Structures
1.
Amino acid sequence: MNILLTGASGQLGQELQTSLAGLGRVVSVDRFPAGDGSVEMDLSDLHQLEDLLDRQSPNVVINAAAYTAVDKAESEHRTAFQINAELPAALGRWCKRNDRFLLHYSTDYVFSGDSDRPYVEGDLVGPLGVYGASKLAGEWAIGASHCRHVILRTSWVYSTHGSNFVLNMLRLARQRSELSIVSDQTGCPTWARNLARTSAIVLQLAIEAGTDTARQGIFHYCDSSVSTWYDFARLIFELAVELNLLHEIPRLKSVRSTEFPQVARRPAYSVLNTGSIRKVFGVSPPALESSLRACLTELDA
């Protein structure tokens, strides 16, 4: 395959560069250099991006670029929609016009969090803030383009690089003896490497399926364990102490979302049902503890 990857310097993009290496040639594109042979580009410049697509003529476009600053999105509405909606819309139009395949990533934040069971792909959406609304607009734009595509909705992504909950918790634990952690938001923490490996499987099978619509559309992927932020933090600290990344576990105080004011509302329950991707692509999402241990072990290397 000839693959063009946007958002290559992000935590998912970096993992994708490795997982996609066996599938063909990967051209990495981002506003920051992402390795040898990468293309530095402002992804909000859609004319420049389209010129690059025409020159490279990839078989597959993978869009891992995203505006993920949930709170800042409330005041940076335009920027959030540029990256999360207008960019995927342009990619979808180009892929449709040139009969190419698009793999795109979305989020559990397209849901309101009012459910009492894991969300399936066809459940009613209802984002609570600008970030979720912009990601949902990106989904709709790709669907409206009628290109061949897969959209993977995921949740609570962490890795050994970038900005994420795991690294933030480790940093704060080295600075403070007590931490307050929200305990009334529930989701599925997902290691970026697991998502990248799944992406390679999905991409290969979707391409092999050609125009078979059973392997196109929206699918949910997250790792298999359900957790609150509080329980996730406790596991991070327990494993970090075991691996000598921390000397001791800080005192943890369980707080409700209302006690931890943030600009944007978060869904209280955003667990994603992965039954569809398991059935269609044969994927088996790993559990949290084994994945988190592997991730933290790399920090210790």
2.
Amino acid sequence: MARKPRLLLPGVPQHIVQRGNNRNPCFFADNDYLRYLEVLQTAANENDVSIHAYVLMTNHVHLLATPRGEWGITNMMQDVGRKFVQFINRSYQRSGTLWEGRFRACLVESEAYLLTCMRYIELNPVRARMVENPEAYRWSSYAANAGGTSDNLVQTHECYRALGLTNAARAAAYRDLFRYQLEETESRSFVRRSTVVSYLVRSASRTMSSEY
């Protein structure tokens, strides 16, 4: 029997990237972001996936998530893709695809790397020059992880919980990580590593392409 791809390892965090078709926008108004988060939370709960960090950019999404079952990530992303496309198509009287058809997933096997991944995700709006500080961007998990703001979507990882004995201590320690924002070389290294070990989820692509 052929070995299952490492992408399906339950209990291992994954950095997920979902992009708009041809890099076109997939969010057009505040209500679209809110709807995506609502759909994502439902899909994560139904497929037993924990979301540790996220950012919704104009034309793509970054997630850091841990599945409890082998197909948790694939099923979650299929659910999100299908329901959100239906919502956008109804809202804007459009038809056809919204996503590029495949999401990319990179295993995050190092505990130290997990916190770097969280920081990379939540600093996306800063690198894109949309805001000067991550706390100024509404559509990310930074407020929950660094500020202790309630966010029902976010479930903390044990690496994050190890930052302090209390919620306040953990949030403060996490904020300290952002005092040393990603240097350009670190960011490039992160992207190169993600590219090398990333996997294209072909089964999800075929399903979503046929449905959208």
3.
Amino acid sequence: MNKTIFIAVALLMMFTLPAMADPTTTDVVWNGGGTLNIDFQVSNDMLAQFDAAGFAHQGQFHGKNFADNPYSYNVDTATAFVKATLAGGGSGQPDSFMQFQVDRLDSKSSMYGPAGQQTYSYIGTDGTAEMMFGSTTNYAAMTNAQYGWGNTYGWTTNGKNFEATGYHYIKHQITDSSADGAMVEAWGNGPTTSMVKCMGETSQGSAFNMARLPVCGDGLAWLGNYGTFQGSGVGQFHVGAWADNGLTIGSGTGWTIPGNGSDNSATYNLWVNYAGTWSWTDFGVSGN
């Protein structure tokens, strides 16, 4: 069953979209200002939440409950995707925001480890912002592969997943079942632009990767394509990761940070302050 809902947002809009027994696709389309809250619940398998508040914002949310129960594992496949733009009020500090969170709630744990994986994305700005990101969960893992969404819906963000101008803050994070994970953050001060590309990642059991999803059987992400940052103006960039057993930095770099099995014994932080035009290629991190 397909649903398309067009919303002219004004003041406060809240939607709770429950799962159904049959395969169900739900689309919410909005254009206006004020506050928007969308909750998309797929039984006990996935919870996706999108929130926005600003002077003007528009976009679309797509959620699907496949109701497929592969291999009779009692876990359905589910997807959630958002494509949105936002305009702030030019106040000199982030005065408008949007955030997108997906939680994987169930797993075939005897084979693939426990559930509890989460991906979270946030942009706050007084200028403009764009977000395009999607996630899929099933019995085995959470997978955030973005090329399919771009082909289906068309890029909002110049081929990037998160973009902002003005005074702004961008955060994207993925964590595993034990809350280990990685994040990328960007700050902008005034007439600044930040663009973050995070094309492929996954989290399964107590292992994760951010922007290092293997392709073509080579065990590596596409160097210079999966995790990139571009900034102009005056800004700050941060990549952080934490894990118990070890971290691998980038694709094909050979950089590893060992852990001893204790909580967060392997940590990584890259901080860059820049003025002018600056970019970073391949910020991906994986760990367990």
4.
Amino acid sequence: MIIKRDLGPILQKYLKKYAIILLTGPRQSGKTTLVQSLFPDFLYTNLESLDVRLMAQEDPRGFLAQGKQMVIDEVQKVPELLSYLQTLIDANKHLKFILTGSQNLLLLSKIKQSLAGRVALFRLFPFDLNELEQAGWRKKKLLEQMLWGFYPPIYSQKLKPYKWYLDYIATYLERDVRELVNIRNMRDFSRFLKLTAGRTGQILNLSSLAVEVGVSVNTIKQWLSILEASYIIFFLRPYYRNFNKRIIKSPKLYFYDTGIVTALLGIKNVAELTNHPLKGSIFETFIIAEIKKWFTHHDRNISLYFWQEQNRREIDLLYEDGGKIHAYEIKSTHTFSPKLFSNIEYFESLSRKKIVGQVIFAGDKELKFKHYAFVPWNRIFN
């Protein structure tokens, strides 16, 4: 069963304008399935296969001459191909290439060197809620959805989420991490992963994390950059405006998928998640990652922020769009209360602008409060 992805029509549109499309994203997010379904007439090649990779390395010109329309999967395996693509595209404007890759750090540095101005860049993450809804796969219960996460194989192959995520994490450790950096003690890195999961939705404190893992701050910085480049985590930067208040300047850390978080934390079922002290932070991660995915899958270049004063007043998520400031508070409650909007009202008074304010909560009934909205977790973009 091929699931329609929101990014699909956008890729088709841009391929008419560009010779090359680069689609990045985490492993198992559905990149290969998407490009094969959108471009069935393209010659498909996968550089994960040793014989294909050897051909690309030993005879790059011959490899690229196989067809006028090609998909090259996991292109970061042979990054030197990008330099040959540049001269090939410049010489023949009718060629079309779809490139995919799962390591942002390596790919983008090569793209900037070789293919600037010739390639359209996109990212595909695991399913978002709307895509699951369209497929009939969205879970009715919030906590169940948080445990299942959004990775396509779990749904298409009807796999057990906890087991799949444990295998995914182990595979990630063995493959991507070893390719990106030489880590002497993988047990330290594994402990680092689990401790990082316990900090999702929190202000990043490098020193504290370094002490707990038992490595240097510089090592923690390097390892976080690996997780970010592999699309495991992302950061929200603080929103800076001069409101004559002292505000937090460190970023907040989030995971792209709560299934990975719960697996790293050893949370196996709904009962364990219900009583877990990090349930609120995991819910916040769930919502912010969902919003980030939705904007990415709709090719919306929106920068997301948080805002927090040193007196602990905060807004979980902020972004500017259409000349308006959108402010979200994320609460794992099922019950409405006007107090839930107090931080949004406070922020609005400081900014002296009318805010598009929403409290996203764990229930299922949408309500209005003043000019704000009380929005269920499964209707963020409905």
